[in-house]
Amino acid sequence: MEESPVIRMWITNKNGREITTDMSDSMVSFLSVAIENGCIGSTFAEDEERIIVYTRWSDERTLEQFRSSEDYGIEEGKIVQSFVAAGFEIPGDILFNSTAKILFSN
Fold first, then answer.
1. Measured in Å, how far apart are the chain's first and last C-alpha atoms?
2. What angle do CA 78, 41, 69 make, to 5 degrees?
3. Distance between CA 38 and CA 78 in Å, rounded?
4. Strand partners, 54
């Protein structure tokens, strides 16, 4: 059976808070390490109300290998620390966190 590509999404409420340099640096570092571990694309974005992070993977197995790695734990810890230092309540401010199979993409 052929494995389907997947995306991983994290959406966090800003509740009037701004993205700090430390938050941005930790997220860019995380996404860079994700690429080194098989991620084939990522996006870090914001709108007035939310912070949005999106990664794309060739299959869920590759994503889960990264999620269970030491690299993931270290980088995730840096993200959480930077968000908490900026006044975010983790996990309370997380609006949505999910992995989804890609049905169509161009």
1. 22
2. 45
3. 20
4. 9, 43
13 near 76, Cβ under 8 Å? no
Taking only the tens place, the pLDDT of each residue in 53-85 is 999 999 999 999 999 999 999 999 999 999 999
Sheet arrangement for strand 39-46: 39-46, 50-57, 6-13, 94-101
**DSSP assignment string, 33-64:** HHHHTTEEEEEEEE-SSEEEEEEEES-HHHHH
DSSP-based helix, strand, coil % in the chain, nearest 5: 40, 30, 30
One-letter amino acid for residue 23 of the chain: M
Confidence (pTM): 0.90
